[in-house]
Amino acid sequence: MYDEVSAGAVLILNDHNSPKEFLILNYSYGHWDFPKGNIEKGETEIETVFREVSEETGIKDLQILDGFRQQITYKYRKKSKLVNKAVIYYLAKTSTREVILSDEHTNFGWFNFEKALEKLSFENSRKVLRMANEFLSNT
Questions:
Q1: Is the pLDDT of residue 11 over 90?
Q2: 100 phi and psi angles, rounded to 5 deg
Q3: Range of 57's domain?
């Protein structure tokens, strides 16, 4: 059982004329990660992905790629309580390069695979990116 469950997207730019680029956000706490957020009551994972990506980036044209769903888990401190959290990631494409950041973020970038791996702050996110890149190579 998890105290919090979030859903998010490994988002790639759908531009057939250039190499794959992944969207990574710089959160106000200082870390770099994919867009994600808590699943609200009555919401599906996919609905959360669409809502969170829209709220955090302004991007609305998402195409979820069938067959990719990865879950990571971790613990963090919220005040004095240890929170057990799960995050479910989907792979999605967009044609929108322009990003309108929410107040939760200070910066963003569209990065190729190698640079995205360097930017991501957490190993579990890097693992998800590696799996997404492998999935894309096999489709």
A1: yes
A2: -110, 105
A3: 4-136
Which residue has 């190729």 as its token pair?
112
Exposed (0-12), middle (13-18) or buried (19+): which is 13, by Cβ within 10 Å?
middle
Q: What is the three-class DSSP state of 1?
A: coil
Radius of gyration of the chain (CA): 14
The SS3 call for residue 62 is: coil
Q: Given the DSSP bridges, would you call strands 63-78 and 81-94 parallel, antiparallel or unpaired?
A: antiparallel
Q: Which pLDDT value is given to residue 58?
A: 98
- Whats the size of the chain, residue-wise? 139
CATH number at residue 50: 3.90.79.10
Query: Structural domain tally of the chain?
Result: 1
**Beta-bridge partner residues of 85:** 4, 74
The answer to whether 59 and 11 are in contact (CB under 8 A) is yes
pLDDT attached to residue 15: 75
pLDDT of residue 19: 84
